[in-house]
## 1
Amino acid sequence: MKKIPVLLMGCGGVGRHLLQHIVSCRSLHAKMGVHIRVIGVSDSKSLLVPMDVLKEELNDEFLSQVCRIKSNGSPLSTFSALEKGGFRVVGESELRKETEEITQILGKSTGLAVVDCSASMETIEILMKAAESGCCVVLANKKPLTSTLEHYDKLVLHPRRVRHESTVGAGLPVIASMNRIISSGDPVHSILGSLSGTLGYVMSELEDGKPLSQVVRAAKTLGYTEPDPRDDLSGMDVARKALILARLLGKRITMESIEIESLYPEEMGPGLMSVDDFLQNGIVKLDQNIEERVKKASSNGCVLRYACVIEGSSVQVGIREVPKDSPLGRLRGSDNIVEIYSRCYKEQPLVIQGAGAGNDTTAAGVLADIIDLQDLFP
Ligand SMILES: NC(=O)c1ccc[n+]([C@@H]2O[C@H](COP(=O)([O-])OP(=O)(O)OC[C@H]3O[C@@H](n4cnc5c(N)ncnc54)[C@H](OP(=O)(O)O)[C@@H]3O)[C@@H](O)[C@H]2O)c1
Ligand SMILES: *[C@@H]1O[C@H](CO)[C@@H](O)[C@H](O)[C@H]1NC(C)=O
């Protein structure tokens, strides 16, 4: 049986689903000859590890308890009061140092998959050191990959040991498909995508003639948006995904060089207007302009999509008119879509479409990434 030791950072919606999937897939993985050995779980304040990370693991009952405690909104440090023994709780002050030590010890011996399911910029130091000491790195977190080029190079130092399928289109095989195209020497000319479920939903509702303000309020009520819908409307999250794809294509660019169209003006930004004020009084002022754009597009046989376009050295993120009868134009609701144009996929692009968000699908993508590393472990 191949053993893949895993250290999980982040125990939110995605991290917890990952732990649940790991536990429920035990017999499947056993049939495949693989065992995932969870040797650490951390949240923003503490890390839980077995007494001996080289020999022991956190068992399934323990992992299920981790999920229950985090679902209740309690921190992992709650465990220190449970006095069950068999594990250690590392507190905030030692968190980074201890995590780094574990990655060094295991990276050099049996290998270790460090899995980032946090939404933090702060894991990057740990990840870079882990990559350097021979660990594999699996990410659902986009932020480390969208930092400086210097950081990026350190993270992808050993490309075969880095997986980040879930950073773009959640579980959809976007990165895997691109890697296959790239390694076959088929040059990618351009990529056109709709990479935000929220903005996909908003744009297709606008197409039906509804006002932006009403659509965004409804999306928030349905739980489709971030707590502050401007986090979706700013386009920043789409820009991060676009940057990840562009860098995969070898483009040496940073966030600053991406043209990002925000759906709200600066004066309605989070620092200047509360969420409630924005939703009640701000956003209605944007209705008319966008309605006119929708009508203009329609008169051209087009629809508006919030798209990312990667072509040559340029990466653009914003509203675009696309033909009604193109893959992007036919997209409805919150699905993500990516159209890849290359020499082999010239007239008819390679199209990848499906649910591009959700804790369950995202965690499934992360799990598949971990299993995909099995040949690197003894
Ligand atoms: N949900 C989706 O549909 C989806 C799709 C694609 C990608 N993603 C990405 O997946 C990641 C996780 O998403 P989520 O929805 O699960 O986020 P979340 O619910 O906000 O959970 C984040 C978790 O990370 C922990 N954390 C924060 N800083 C940390 C640190 N320095 N070290 C270790 N853990 C830390 C948090 O700890 P506390 O519990 O202490 O706050 C929390 O448990 C994000 O980067 C997100 O962009 C999500
Ligand atoms: C994902 O998990 C978070 C945290 O538990 C939760 O608030 C959110 O509603 C979940 N999202 C979905 C789509 O289930």
## 2
Amino acid sequence: MNQNPIPNSFREGPDEDGRFGIFGGRFVAETLMPLILDLQAEWDKAKTDPTFKAELDHLNTHYTGRPSPLYFAERLTAELGGAKIYFKRDELNHTGSHKINNCLGQILLAKRMGKTRIIAETGAGQHGVASATVAARFGLPCIVYMGATDVERQAPNVFRMKLLGAEVRPVSSGHGTLKDAMNEALRDWVTNVDDTYYMIGTAAGPHPYPEMVREFQSVIGAEAREQMLQVEGRLPDMLIAAVGGGSNAIGLFHPFLDDKSVRMVGVEAGGKGLDGNEHCASLTAGSPGVLHGNRTYLLQDADGQIKDGHSISAGLDYPGIGPEHSWLKDLGRVEYVPIMDTEALEAFQLLTRTEGIIPALEPSHALAEVMKRAPKMGKDEIILMNLCGRGDKDIFTVGKILGMGL
Ligand SMILES: *Cc1c(COP(=O)(O)O)cnc(C)c1O
């Protein structure tokens, strides 16, 4: 039985209940439902309001520095000896990753709703930093829930959040990682219904978050599409992006989903290999279930207990995945593959040495896939990869592994 009838357009989801085929939806406590419906009503108004769009465009241009460049990686292309490789350089954004695209959209929404307190969850700390940044910019107090383990692992980002005026609340339930932080943030939201806005950091969670975050991140793909047409006079043959919760990937993919000639690859964290539990490949090695308000592919055991994944990059360390990716996987529109820690580390070093760009460990996973694919493709073919974050936050991790005396 095919539960996912092929849609006329891959870009038309979700339906009014937030479903992408059998995925997505709104699995939340009854107390949260009025909040979710409020948010949805405001989002429905905002997304067609030219004032909202103008304000967001202005901030994207003057605060973040958009459009981010489309860069032809000439030396890397020569080194790999196949397809032409282009990067969408979202690592050049203010705060160093694509997270700011989403946070600016959501803080404008929070303001429209008259909310006076921002809460957020964070894993590696990139979304926490972006949330604290926009909260400072708009003069609102910000509380960031962060797993206690991550607080230790990601000390520089904790320090940045505090400098920006945010309060970081360590969460020690579970394994003290992103999943636990998200549970705690949802709990806070239920108890502070009137004044609080919950800023989710990826294209997951209950409807309308997956759609909303996708729309804010689609600026990546919309710009890249236009830039590519300008530079090459045609669309790329393949898009490649790293997938944690899936926001930067869906942001790149979505504007191209109906372009049949464009193949797409999402790269998950294969960690230390898919045999054991030390990976975070929810789509490749997981199964459908419900987590954080939506149905999607998850890493879970036979009893439905969520497993704690592993990745060298804390930003890919999420046992779920945005529901739209689950849908695109089952439809076969996007291919999802794992990349191991060691492969990502190698890619990190290659890019640093050939192009003088230190990437974050998350897009290093995407780059490792580029390294596999490009040599097998023709010199007249084009790969476009989302370089979604810079590596400043990762130099200590990498330095330690490489024995550089840090
Ligand atoms: C947070 C983060 C990710 C993972 O999140 P997505 O929602 O999958 O994009 C990937 N790369 C970087 C640089 C990040 O900061």
